[in-house]
Amino acid sequence: VFWNDSCPQNPKGIETIGDLTRAMTQAIQPKASKWNIAANVLFSGFGQNKASNTGEIRVEFDDDECKRFVESKTRRENYIKLDRYHDTASRIALVGDAAHGMYSLLGQGAACGFLTASILAKSIQKAGGDIPTALENYSAVAVPEGHAIADLNLLPHAIFGSLVAKLLSVPLLLLNALRGKLLLKRVVSDDVTYQQIYRENSLLVMVCRYFWKKDRVPFFDTKTKLA
What we know:
Radius of gyration: 23 Å
Shape: globular
Structural class: mainly alpha
Strand content: under 5%
Strand order of the largest sheet: 1-2
């Protein structure tokens, strides 16, 4: 998030090692209580600044690592949708990011990986040793879930996008929040599937996918035929 190639990827404007260490040090500080904030506002200029540094967490950074980080090129997040998560002939199953690579905003990459691994294990157990059948059943259950959470993770293209994108997406987020179905809270619930959350936010996903299509950089030329 710290590179300066585009604003959404570098909200802190990190350009030098000093910028990076200041931003990281600030990020790990304990959050001030509302009473401390009020005191700083009311009594600023009366010695409060010195007192506010009490308990500050100090960190030593490796200069070489910081330099390497700042000089690195911008990485890209990948969005992957496959029509199946297995190959019957090779008796291979894909789980985790290999099957459903997604953006990191909702923090569900690892959780979805555990989910698909669990689905695979149950499919193998239920098939009683018939691996081809187990793999077919695995994809039938796992693919819709992987597609749903991958699509939900397109949210950054709307909420971090243009003013028009924000005006279209934020009201939809707030509407579901008022209905008691806040997206960021629903995705960490054990009692609801990704597909159900997708259905609750289908219009929002439609908006996000529109802006994703405008922003995306295809992994390969769609006119190129794969061997």
